[in-house]
Amino acid sequence: MPVEFIGYIGNFNASETIARSGPIVDRNHIAAAAAIHENGGFDRVLLAFHSTSPESILVGQYVTSLTRNLKLMIAHRPGFTAPTLAARQLATLDHLSDGRVSVHIITGGNDQELAQDGDHLTKDERYARTSEYLDIVRQEWTSEKPFDHDGKYYHVTGGFSEVKPQGSDGIPIYFGGSSDAAIAVAGKHADIYALWGETYAQVSETIQRIRVAAASHGRSPRFSLSLRPILAETEEEAWAKADRILQQATALRASGERLISVNAKSGSGQPPNEGSRRLLAAAAQGARLDKRLWTEIAALTGAAGNSTSLVGTPDQVADAMLDYYGLGVTTFLIRGFDPLEDALHYGRDLIPRVRALVAERDNAAAPAQAAE
Description:
Elements: E1 4-8, H1 27-39, E2 44-47, H2 56-66, E3 71-76, H3 83-96, E4 101-106, H4 111-116, H5 123-142, E5 147-150, E6 155-159, E7 173-176, H6 180-189, E8 192-196, H7 200-215, E9 222-227, E10 230-231, H8 235-254, H9 274-285, E11 288-289, E12 293-294, H10 296-301, E13 309-312, H11 314-327, E14 331-334, H12 339-371
Parallel strand pairs: 1-2, 1-14, 2-3, 3-4, 4-7, 7-8, 8-9, 9-14, 10-13
Antiparallel strand pairs: 5-6, 11-12, 12-13
Helix pairs in contact: 1-12, 3-5, 5-6, 6-7, 11-12
């Protein structure tokens, strides 16, 4: 199966190692990032969501105006827009972009961040609301006649959308979340389930849990893995680069600079969301795991987001990514600590190698599959 590559377009140039400067919506940075990703062979780009950030759907509209083929993965949090309206917003942008829209559903595990948008439900209640929200969104996208919905969180009478997604398969729904409540909702709704960069064992376990949850709904989702590849011409140089990144990130944090609010800790001293706890559990096993998974940025930041790396030459990192492909991952979300320069290198040095390895693996497996 061909692999999909997703990049990342921030609203400004910043990372764990680069302090933000300039406007909160930096159109020059967005335009440069869009051009690099489109020309570099990325399939999509993630447009992130946070309770204090610029609005992701509107940024996505700007990106589609600058590009011709680059697709979007718009992070979206259920509960703050009526599901009927959100469905029409996404379907409208799907038409304006010639079918380039997907949505990444992030319910949210941090109570303090959710409170910034006026949401005070418990985590399990939020996931229950997300499931109901997506039920309505899909009806808006597919129903050929008005429908009613009478649920716990939403009551719709005569709901209907004249604008439907362009593609016959609708708008792809990516889904993130690692708690038991999240797994249950993902099994029902996710077209692509998104994991952070965990160990081989953790990824294999989660994929199996999702497949079991999805099977009860007659569904078979695909899987995405998020990583921060660190590349250099030699392995020694790549690890030296990782050490410099850690030093830069440590110094930037000491200065008080934060890209976004960090994870609030629970009473146990752990982050409130299961995904971060899983990354920290991996980091507790060591700084370097499996072939070349590097965990020190996750340990430094409290695993506040996508924060683990594969470190090595482009060939070595591509080989490690092929291992994840063997576990069932068919989408890779990759972004660097130097957002523009790293995206350029990924498009030139990494993406073609991974695509070639996957094609070689699939071609080798084809005769055996045909004989079964």
